[in-house]
Design a protein that fits this description.
The complex is a heterodimer of chains A (330) and B (324). Chain A is of the alpha/beta class and 330 residues long. In chain A, 33% of the residues lie in helices and 21% in strands. Chain A has an eight-stranded mixed sheet, with helices on both faces. A four-stranded antiparallel sheet of chain A has the order 2-1-4-5, covered by helices on one side. The longest helix of chain A is centred in the middle third of the chain and has 18 residues, at 184-201. The two termini of chain A are 33 Å apart. The relative contact order of chain A is 0.14. Chain B has a domain at 6-229: 3-Layer(aba) Sandwich (Rossmann fold). Chain B starts with 5 loop residues before the first strand and ends in a 9-residue tail after the last strand. An eight-stranded mixed sheet of chain B has the order 6-7-8-3-9-10-12-11, with helices on both faces. A four-stranded antiparallel sheet of chain B has the order 2-1-4-5. Classes of the chains: A alpha/beta (330), B alpha/beta (324).
Chain lengths: 330, 324
């Protein structure tokens, strides 16, 4: 792993907005700072609509930020055609639904070779496709080359998608819910494959998920996103064994295996990014505010009126990056 | 002892296709008492949704369904069409997977629930139907004023609630929920699960809960049945089955759900090698043996039946009973 001074990918104060209904503006990503280091697995966790997929798409250059910047190996992302093409040789995407991601009329060979052709890296194409398939656990690779996506199982299809991304030997994979459409039994196999790729090739993975169990299985660090902002981040151990933000605590409490926690089921769904609540954006659903505890502690006014950024968690070990954005912790 | 609410005997479902017959369910037996909850788990294609389809007789007409499905002592598989229509909804209702597409997008949600009520109780006045629909909506946690909303005006979780209200419209005694939370977000999933648990308890509903997510079933259901290649391979009290599986397939499924905070799962995702078998060419002997980590010499030849695996538990594995 490289030193913290040279992160692979840096996201600085990123804002991405979309036009909403009646002239409103949806602030999908609303001030995000994030770092992905070479060879690490970072899980970006949150509910639907929290902006995690928009953040991932912006990192890939598929959306343009309204403000802020993305740096790859220290250099700002170049949105020119050539710049983006060079960038995508290093940064590849794995989509949620392998069936939708593959062209049903392309053989597996063509699907995996497509990235090489787009990038104009034509030499020894077949050898590279075969090696990418083998590395993705499709063995013997020759058996798969001329098959069509419908002729293989769902788990194998996701392996084909991963082979298509890995054939370019990227430094960073952005995986959006890579196992959520797969059966439980296949899920573990695909996660093992991802972890193996990190260990063998040193690729870093930014995995977007709502599944905290997945984070425990493969992630070095976790960032929790709520309504366009990172509200807590830290190493997987810190964040999942000692969550500080009430939102992280609630997410963790509804994981079915967590029998010992009383489930804190938040009411409603993630609120509307066109109408950002004042103060802490979580306060309308926050159990600490709702239970009156914030009022007892005399912080309710700040919860409802004072926006806040991530700050280091007090009492964390030296060198820890555990940080959370909650008035309760100040 | 009173007769169980539902008793399924040697249920077999065979799909007809141009390429020949495909066995979907190969002899399933189970019972469900009034107010009890059963979880049916397994991978895609294991036959769990076929069981649900057979219970309600919703499978394509050419499908061969044999065996017995006794609901309150009446064999559902032999019911004449009129009686079947009466049994569906009033005794036995289903919440489908892919809920978001089940509602009619051009009809108001209240109308859709009202239709179910008035079809089965034609004598009830329009005003009474409206009142009942409002009640049902409130019951599942949607304000009655949303009665005139169209499905697109509701969120995913709210639409799933509408479907639950719809299933409850004619006060059934048995509810089948086929992957009711799969497409939903974590927090909404927790909300819907809690609603189903509350309803089950308050109304004394019996419930069959179908999903591949063993961890959800273990926390919601009293009993758990795990299916593989068209058969139940393990059955018993859900906590016991999840915590101490007797069948290696159940063990692999259970291990796929990591316990957060448990070092054994840290950086160690666990899965099951291989793919579910093609139902047209099932492996010989125990159909799980090609994927089984602890298969023994006799497994490719011995087609093992469910057998006692401790108090109230059954499993279909040579290592159970004799081997212990």
């Amino acid at each position: 792993m490289s030193s913290p001074e040279a992160p692979l990918l840096e996201v600085h104060d990123l804002h991405v907005t979309f036009p909403g209904p009646h002239g409103s503006v949806a602030r999908a990503v609303d001030g995000v700072d994030l770092v992905v280091r070479a060879g690490e697995v970072l899980a970006l966790v949150g509910e639907s609509g929290c902006g995690k997929t928009t953040l991932a798409r912006t990192i890939l250059g598929l959306e343009r930020p309204r403000a802020g910047e993305i740096r790859y190996e220290g250099k700002p992302l170049d949105y020119g055609i050539g710049g983006l093409r060079r960038y995508r040789r290093r940064v590849q995407m794995i989509f949620q639904d392998p069936t939708g991601a593959l062209n049903p009329r392309q053989t597996i060979y063509e699907a995996v070779a497509e990235g090489l052709r787009v990038q104009g890296s034509g030499a020894d194409e077949e050898a590279r496709v075969v090696s990418a398939l083998a590395r993705s656990g499709l063995r013997p690779p020759e058996r798969f080359l001329q098959l069509y996506p419908y002729e293989v199982s769902g788990g194998q299809r996701q392996r084909v998608v991963i082979a298509g991304a890995m054939v370019l030997e990227p430094r960073l994979l952005v995986a959006d819910e890579p196992v959520s459409s797969l059966d439980a039994s296949v899920r573990g196999e695909i996660l093992q494959l991802m972890l193996g790729l990190v260990r063998e090739t040193g690729v870093a993975i930014l995995v977007v998920t709502h599944d905290l169990g997945l984070a425990w299985n493969i992630a070095d660090r976790v960032a929790v996103m709520y309504l366009g902002r990172i509200v807590e981040q830290g190493t997987t151990e810190e964040l999942l064994s000692d969550p500080k933000h009430p939102y992280t605590q609630a997410l963790l409490s509804v994981v079915p295996e967590k029998e010992r926690l009383e489930p804190q089921i938040l009411t409603g769904e993630a609120p509307d990014p066109t109408r950002m609540p004042a103060g802490c954006r979580f306060h309308p659903r926050c159990p600490v505010v709702q239970a009156g505890e914030a009022a007892r502690l005399g912080i309710e006014q700040r919860c409802c009126g004072e926006d806040l950024a991530l700050s280091p968690v007090r009492g964390a070990q030296l060198g820890s990056q555990h940080a959370a954005a909650c008035h309760l912790l100040e | 002892m009173t007769a169980p609410l539902l008793s399924v005997r040697d249920l077999r479902v065979t799909y007809r296709s141009s390429a020949g017959d495909v066995p979907g369910v190969r002899g399933v037996d189970f019972e469900l008492g009034r107010g009890q909850t059963l979880g049916l788990a397994g991978e895609s294609g294991c036959g769990k949704s076929s069981v649900a389809g057979a219970l309600l007789r919703l499978l394509p007409p050419a499908t061969a369904v044999t065996g017995e499905v006794l609901l309150e002592g009446e064999n559902v598989l032999a019911l004449p069409p009129d009686r079947l229509r009466a049994v569906r909804w009033t005794e036995l209702a289903i919440i489908f997977q892919g809920a978001l597409h089940t509602l009619n997008p051009v009809k108001r949600v209240g109308w859709q629930i009202g239709e179910a009520v008035s079809t089965h109780q034609p004598s009830v006045s329009g005003k009474e139907v409206q009142r009942r629909v409002g009640e049902l909506l409130e019951f599942v946690g949607i304000p009655a004023r949303r009665i005139d909303d169209y499905p697109h005006q509701l969120s995913g979780g709210q639409r799933q609630r509408v479907l639950i209200a719809l299933a409850l419209a004619c006060s059934p005694s048995l509810l089948i929920a086929d992957e009711p939370t799969t497409a939903l977000d974590v927090m909404v999933q927790a909300q819907v699960l809690k609603l189903l648990q509350d309803l089950q308890r308050d109304l004394g509903l019996a419930m069959i809960f179908i999903t591949h997510d063993l961890s959800t079933l273990a926390s919601v259901c009293q009993r758990l049945a795990v299916m593989y290649a068209g058969r139940i391979v393990e059955e018993g009290p859900s906590e016991e089955v999840f915590e101490a599986p007797a069948h290696p397939y159940t063990a692999a499924l259970a291990a796929a759900f990591p316990v957060i905070g448990d070092e054994r799962y840290r950086m160690a995702p666990s899965g099951l090698g291989g793919d579910p078998p093609d139902p047209r060419v099932l492996p010989s002997g125990c159909s799980f043996h090609p994927r089984c980590a602890v298969a023994q010499a006799e497994c490719p030849t011995v087609d093992i039946e469910l057998r006692g695996a401790g108090s109230g538990r059954r499993a279909a594995c040579v290592r159970v009973g004799a081997g212990r």
